[in-house]
Design a protein that fits this description.
It is a single chain. With 346 residues, this protein is of the alpha+beta class. It has a domain of 84 residues: Pdz3 Domain, CATH 2.30.42. It is built from 9 helices and 12 strands. A hairpin with a 4-residue loop joins strand 9 and strand 10. The longest helix is centred in the last third of the chain and has 31 residues. The chain is elongated.
Amino acid sequence: MILTIAAAVFVFGLLVLVHEFGHFITAKLTGMRVDEFAIGFGPKIIGKKYGETLYSLRAIPLGGFNDIAGMDPDNNNAGERGFCEKHVFARMIVILAGATMNFILPIILFFLIYATVGVGVPSTEPIIGGLIQDMPAEKVGLQVNDKILSIDGQKISTWKEFTEKVGVLEPEQSVLLEYQRGDQINTVTLSPQYNEREKRNLVGVQNSIVYEEKSVPESFTLAITNTKNITVMMIEAIANLFREPEQTDNLAGPIGIIQMSGQVAERGFVPLLSFAALLSINLGIVNLLPVPVLDGGHFVNLCIEAVRGKPLSAKAIIYTQRVGLALLLMLMLFATKNDLVRVFMK
């Protein structure tokens, strides 16, 4: 539990810090007044004012904000330094900077991993690198780093052999699995579970990862390529949510992300950094969706203003923001429902 909480705070804190820093630094560079830079929501735990900006840490580490003067034109007390008084293109830069930083962060994280640890590739050895929660392998007590030795007396030498033997079993068919943990040889009875989505039998294990060394230039190139490829895949996955509504059952909310953070953290700090990179890309994409109250929605409003030569009316902005907020709340409730089903309907 402590590891899960620590991992979740680290991941959420890192993503929010980077996102809000993007808004913060571009607001400063374009001459806007930033009254507060906060990590978290709710009651203030600690705060320190430097210059005109209060830097604070708040109790709920699931977000953050920048209090930029003049975001509301009717309450601008910063004169020409207010957000609403700046040129529309300056405001566009500030709005897009948060999501932009969420795409820069994965490049940095992947580069650090590749340049220091190497590029992870699946190991051919039959060693468990990860366990899927509530699947047969976890339920019978198998652990990460256990080495599979045999199934029903048939020797296992590679991960491929292990998956092939599991794949040909009948659903719920019991087998005697021999494995090595440290210096001890143990056996356990294991029954595979048929997975409808993948159309095959699974026991809920992932193979281990080995790392190949890469040079600094190679690491940088791979970091950019990996970030680009993951971004494309995530955009396609979001598009599939509209084409295949049943896919929404896979949506995860804060509870699910917290759980996943703990599970990934059990595999080590490097996997946790990779997980943070994936979430950062996801956050960047979601924030750019043209939904009012999200950065993408604000950007659309600014584009309309650039074309019209004047901003939308306050009434129109309030109406669209209410609609956008309602949509986000519905999505959050649905994702939280999925999380609760996973937790309590095991």
